[in-house]
Amino acid sequence: MDRRLLLEDDLTRSAVVANSAMNRGRQLAGVNSYTRELGFNPLDQVRSAAGRGRHGGWLYLCCGTGRALLQAARSMRGERVALVGVDLVDYFDPIDDVDLPVKLVCASVTSWVPARRFDLITCVHGLHYIGDKLAVLTRAASWLTDDGLLVADLDLTSIRLPDGRPAGRALAGALRQAGFRYDARRRRITSEGRREVSLPYDYLGADDKAGPNYTNQPAVHSYYQPR
Description:
Layout: H1 8-11, H2 34-38, H3 42-51, E1 56-61, H4 67-75, E2 81-87, E3 102-106, E4 118-123, H5 133-141, E5 144-153, E6 159-160, H6 168-177, E7 181-183, E8 188-192, E9 201-212, E10 218-226
Parallel strand pairs: 1-2, 1-4, 2-3, 4-5, 6-10
Antiparallel strand pairs: 5-8, 7-8, 9-10
């Protein structure tokens, strides 16, 4: 392998990973919105849990400015909900009301650990910039409530074997066996209900010089050794 692979400490300092364009202006609803991107309104999932007597929660990994979460918090003021956003870059919109049920955290999603479970976990175009993508997916699956939903964008061609080839069908099969569903057309991975997941791959490092992916933004290729 003639490429230089970066581990997490070096990768977090990459300009590609600290992307300042993806998701920064996306709203909760409307034309450029998460409701349109996901195909459902995130508030419906959270309110459904709250309607069953639980303290509903939405965790947004790689949340950008957190604008959609802040809009959701204003809409759900006074409801039994917890809205949490995590992003590597502290580029958040200001929280102008301390009573809003929202928390924005500047941290790496590969090491951050939540204090609760969530009814909805999203990572919209965030995995493109993460090194150990599979670890984030497996960790997030364990943070769901028993009937929670995980939704993330995942380009399988960005997950590579030591010789540079995409992990391909073998990886897709391992994800399905672990309980994930993958939509190849939309490049979207989902999982329902909390589960402890182990995938048969060991992380080697990431290449931040991979170039643009299908979003036309520079992205990161992640390298794994199959067990």
